[in-house]
């Protein structure tokens, strides 16, 4: 321990000597420089510099120093007090760079200099991509816009080098190159093909400045929801509540209530701890079945006491999942909600209190009281205690706040404040009680040597962004710090916003020397909009005595954008097909993007809304606080011999002025040498640090550090909710035919011109819904976004169709039309479905098509429809209010004077019946030696569904492009144990080989990879045993491991072209492996592996021997070597047995390829070909027993071995590069976004195979033209060049079946694929339903009972069936137990149950695809029957009776003839 103390003493003595050896003069000159600790490269930034009381003429130099050199910012000769704020140009940087600001003051005989580090960040920009909708159907057009701006929201010019669109399989299906933003908005769109796969699509845009932004959207086959299910719960349920009200409301998008039934599950979940499983509690749930009232809501009073409020083993929240079923249509939509459960009845917290108080200036702050819902509590008494015995009682205002201002004149040292609202009950273990949470705060005395202070006053709320603002500060300046006769003291201020100094100035204040000066000064803030989200203000003064007095504060500002945008419809509600005017206002000259979409789309899929808050959240820097680690100026730690703390809390220094020899600073020896660590918030240095400003000064700004002080602090936080209202009105109109139902109504670019306002006339679409609209604008004044607005399209009498996404030709479906009457009077409605040659229909049984409808009522009508054609079918339904004398209830039916007939025309997609099939033909064409052509015949099978065939051709320029685009990300630094180290080592070699053979290897990549290889090589040698083998943990393992040793051996061999590898290590490994060869040639497995997935499928001696043989052959292809010969004998013997393990077969195919044994190779590959899986136009090999969930790493590995076998030897007929290309397509689709696969060994083998294939097919330059012709007149041309190598180009083909020729001319290889889709009819024994039964019996009672369970599932092609009937025949002599029907009827899916003589018929609404339902009934024996025959249970679609399934059941109680004698 002695040494550090001696060092310390040496430092202290040296400093003292240094200080006595300098002149008094120069050190009396006080200087201060302030600059932001973080600046933007390439921008103008501000710094302020001042000199006070120069004792002699001095020259001042300010410089910015970087590694690349020094730039002078200011050189000035100074004779008197000097203050200047100036702009300086920050150099451009590519990445964040640390620089330093250096200030030098040169006197006649001495120099003072000081420097501090600042961070230069490259300029940051905000990029926003907006699509017209968050979700699309296949075949719709995706429209999107991109806008770019700087951190001040001013649009910037950008060239988008590449904008591309990727499908869920990572194919690039569209690209736009070198797009320049014109007038601030880039507007693009892409039509999706009707066959577009469902899933998530990604738009990626890359700019010429190297920025990348992405945005995703979904493609899905969906039906838009017509209404929303909302759950209303109290915002919190407390331990004091006995009951709570649950309301579930359904509201159509046009604002009217939904009438229907509700099933709600209300739960409190048990907490599950995996370490605590002794008495696991179950979730507590209640199920409520309700119906909605006139307002569309269903209400349930929940008994809270049933949910164990006093137990702590449950989650502190309640969850509700509700389903609402619309009457008539049977449409079910879901909603969910949650609320918290709390025992915190009141929570008190301190708000806006500082960490330090300034003696003599009132200590201000607020106490906030919130209830259990985190909402403010008004008029609540709250107690505040401080300084031992002093207490005050405050009362909260409407915001739950109570302000206090405490006299600090008598305060000393650390003061503890405590605030509380009510005392708590005593604690009882494991029982929850109401809690009243209290708050503590500790304030230490602010350090000032002279007790001079300055304090910025707080403001209420946020500063308005529309007007200038003023902030006030109180000061106490001790007169003895001033010069004799001094009458004015200058205060300086800086205003920071988004990390930069944006305003500055000085405020002179009248003072009097010799007395205590108290008073207030004010600072005005200009152009407040540009300061948001925070104005960070620091006010300071430097007193003649050399002490700085300062304070800083963050003032929050209301978020505004300088381009004010508003969007308004001429009315809130409009009739469909009427004209409406959209008024758009923005800064003159703005270009605006306006959109309006159906609210239903947002109910289906929510999206990130474009709001002012969102735009601000994209700011690269909201405000500065503290300094980042790399620009802290570290100092020696003051409190030796205590241990030095970790770097995170290392002190943050401010280097002392370096004083050149020959100057005597004895006059100000009072200055302390060591300063406190960053945890201190009670000195001037920390005031500047809190807002991220660096101050370079020789004045007193730091508190001397007290090595025995400890501090504490507490704080709590709260948040709140918002609800919204709606407005409505109605208009009228005559007969309507509604045919136009878009999802995106408006997607326009509109210029507002010089007036800053424009009216756009639009026709309201025919959908009865709410249209959600918004706009964003760009102009030279900046970016602006409108508040969201809406227009409800509504008419009081209309018909609405409930349609599925698609139906199947020839299959029956139920068309439902609901008529709504929102008129005040009753009407007689007649509904008709128009005839058509596209479908046939019949009325449903017992259905009426003409009924009375009174005000706010609706009725649903159904028809049984069979579509007869494929494609889009048009359905036309009319509802007419009829003249009639019939009374409706007890009033006369009226006829509306306008809008008497409403007709709706909707289209429905009809798909082909049968099971979809796909056949694809891959052709890899390499025309470098001359044109290449390939003939492809599309042939149909004997049995296929007429009209279902379609085909397409696609062309891709670089198959390896996608697989290889993240290669440099895969380059990795090897680390970990002996195994992991090699897994990270090996891919570097394959990547280098690929890049080298294709001429893409840059010096930068080679240097990086070589560095990784060298460190991996050295590290692996530490796992080497003395006998030459390797194992996971080196010598601490008992022996080396055969698999790992061969992996190391081949990897070291592969690395030799790039780094120095000592040949001895390879020889030693080889010698050790040969020692373990058995007489039959196989190599014995020795040693254990830590991670089994590591060696992939190498599990037995055969696969191990195959792996080692391949490794030896990769090392040097010498087949005559006796070790290799013996290994091959072992493998040939194994081949004589069964080839049941596909993994081993794939590995052997690669080993025999390397051995040059073409006969065995051909045999193995032919066998593998027969076992391959060609789903989806690609080829791979399945592993028996794979889970099917996610990617199976062994499937990747064995597929890669087959690819290696194909590309490592001479090309085989029928197994050329075309064949390989289908394997590569599969592998490329399995890659994760970083280019790797699911595990380790599969990544190593796959990259080795892909790199080898890529090298064989790569061509760097030139373009290729691909022409597709047919025997018909087709002639399609695709061009592939460097710009679109990665673009997946696809076109439809019309002739199926057909003969096509694909011809390629040019230099580079291309992959062409022709794929054909068609449907085949189901096999004759296929059933659309699946039915099974099981029974539970009580036999040994007087009347034996039997519970019959019927399991039904629909497995056809429709999403949902029509009405379904389950017909159960009773066993002879058995009757139904009527009480069991109660349970059956309570099931929501059961519409009704009929019991006829000997049969039970259960009517179901319908079954969804692949959903299993279970129904049970109880039967009992009425008369014993001998030789009881099984009874039949049948399920069928009521309207499509050919869809059926049959099973049977019997009674286990029945006795057979042999025993039972009647």
How are the SSEs ordered, and which strands pair?
Elements: H1 2-20, H2 24-28, E1 30-36, E2 38-40, E3 44-52, E4 58-66, E5 69-78, E6 82-89, E7 97-106, E8 111-121, E9 125-131, E10 135-136, E11 141-150, E12 159-166, E13 172-180, E14 186-191, E15 199-207, E16 212-219, E17 227-232, E18 236-238, E19 243-252, E20 260-268, E21 284-291, E22 297-303, E23 317-326, E24 332-342, E25 344-351, E26 356-357, E27 363-370, E28 381-386, E29 390-395, E30 401-406, E31 415-420, E32 435-437, E33 439-445, E34 453-456, E35 469-478, E36 488-497, E37 500-510, E38 516-525, E39 534-542, E40 548-556, E41 566-569, E42 573-574, E43 579-585, E44 591-598, H3 599-604, H4 612-617, E45 658-659, H5 684-690, E46 693-697, E47 736-738, E48 744-751, E49 757-763, E50 769-779, E51 782-785, E52 789-793, E53 797-802, E54 806-808, E55 813-821, E56 827-833, E57 839-843, E58 850-853, E59 857-867, E60 871-882, E61 887-888, E62 891-892, E63 901-911, E64 915-925, E65 932-938, E66 950-956, H6 959-964, H7 967-970, H8 978-997, H9 1003-1021, H10 1042-1055, H11 1063-1075, H12 1101-1115, H13 1122-1136, H14 1142-1154, ...
Parallel strand pairs: 2-8, 10-16, 18-24, 25-32, 26-33, 42-52, 47-63, 54-63
Antiparallel strand pairs: 1-3, 1-46, 3-6, 4-5, 4-7, 7-8, 8-45, 9-11, 11-14, 12-13, 12-15, 15-16, 17-19, 19-22, 20-21, 20-23, 23-24, 25-27, 27-30, 28-29, 28-31, 31-33, 34-35, 35-38, 36-37, 36-39, 39-40, 41-43, 43-49, 44-48, 44-50, 50-51, 50-52, 53-55, 55-59, 56-58, 56-60, 57-59, 60-63, 61-62, ...
Helix pairs in contact: 8-9, 8-10, 8-18, 10-11, 10-12, 12-13, 12-14, 14-15, 14-16, 16-17, 16-18, 17-18
Keywords: Disulfide bond, Glycoprotein, Protease inhibitor, Secreted, Serine protease inhibitor, Signal
Signal peptide: 1-23
Subcellular location: Secreted
